[in-house]
Amino acid sequence: MFRKVWDCIVNRHIAPNTDPLELIEAQRMNLFAFSIGAVLIFNGCRDLLFGLKINFYVLLVLGIFYLFLFFFTKVRYNHFVTLFSLELFMFLIFFFSSTTGFENGLSLYYFVIMLASLFIFNSKKTVWYNLIVYLTALIFFSISHYYDFRIFTIEGADNVLFSENQRLITFLQVFLGVSILGYFILTKQFKIVKLYQQALRSEKIIADMRTKLNSKDQIDLEGIVKLAMNDDIAFVPKVKQMFPGLYDNLMELNADMSTDEFKLCALIKLGFTTKDIAEYNHLAVRTIQTRKSRLRKSFGISADVDLYKWIDTV
């Protein structure tokens, strides 16, 4: 159940054939956009417990608005809308910190917004938006610091319990916000690095296969390697089409060969290592090693024979 909800949030408004890099960006933005709405509503409910009804109404309306944008529109992908949202959040931080007194610690939220800005505006075309966000944060903070005033007093803002816990609550929420954003940034970076490594590995596999086949145009190696790396169900039919002799020869050696065994043979034929096969099929390395051992028994291949050299002779 949780997995389905998570997938719904992550993949909202994302086309099935989206480019891998664009997919990573879109998924991170989905999580970020949903988190904004959820955090606003949570903070509103928290303030309601302390009797801050105005805070509750403002945050609730904003939270519902952003969740509405998340579920029903794609406007969040517009960088101008995102920039406006961040500017609005900083104004709210300035407003509430000034209203309840600068000493409440709400200015710590500026750092969350600044980190969020780096997370969102990380391309050459949008990186300068960070300057706007940082300057706005500096201006608002400076005004609050040098002119510690209250725009107007909110009833309940002097609640003793609220005052005692304000800094602690603020710190914990800022800590959580920075941690979540840090997680988004790191996972995005890890996925980009993984894509880059896959691209390099793909190029090497294709180059090695071209050398063995001594052909550059007859076989769509790029396409078949991509299918293999994506663990696409079209991989096996494609291999049969591109290497018709491979399947027939293997069937002559073992008429009971299963589809999984042929798939493993095809991956070995393409030069995928045990680690590659495990990674792209989402299996453990030990599982692939076991399957290779079974493949040897199935085809009567002795332990001293290199599978990769053997498959080239089939």
Give a structural overview.
This protein has 2 domains: about 1-195, no CATH class; about 220-314, no CATH class. By secondary structure, it is mainly alpha-helical. Helices cover about 75% and strands about 0% of the residues. Helix 4 runs parallel beside helix 6 (about 130-145) and helix 9 (about 235-240) crosses helix 10. The chain is elongated. The protein has helices at about 1-10, 20-50, 55-70, 80-100, 110-120, 130-145, 160-215, 220-230, 235-240, 245-255, 260-270, 275-280, 285-300, 305-314. The longest helix is centred in the middle third of the chain and has 54 residues, at about 160-215.
Short recap of the structure:
This protein is mainly α and 314 residues long. It contains 14 helices and no strands.
Helix/strand layout:
Blueprint: H1 2-10, H2 20-49, H3 53-72, H4 79-99, H5 109-120, H6 129-146, H7 160-213, H8 221-229, H9 235-242, H10 244-253, H11 259-270, H12 274-280, H13 285-299, H14 307-313
Domains, number:
2
Mean pLDDT: 79
| Helix and strand pattern | HHHHHHHHHHHHHH
Give a short account of the largest sheet. Answer: none
- The backbone outline, from C-alpha atoms, is elongated
Indicate the structural class: mainly alpha
* Uncertain spans: none
Number of helices: 14
Give the DSSP E fraction (strand runs of 2 or more residues): under 5%
Report the helical percentage.
over 70%
Radius of gyration: 28 Å
| First-residue to last-residue Cα separation | 47 Å
Number of strands: 0
Organism: Chryseobacterium jejuense
Keywords: Membrane, Transmembrane, Transmembrane helix
GO molecular function: DNA binding
Domain HTH luxR-type: 254-311
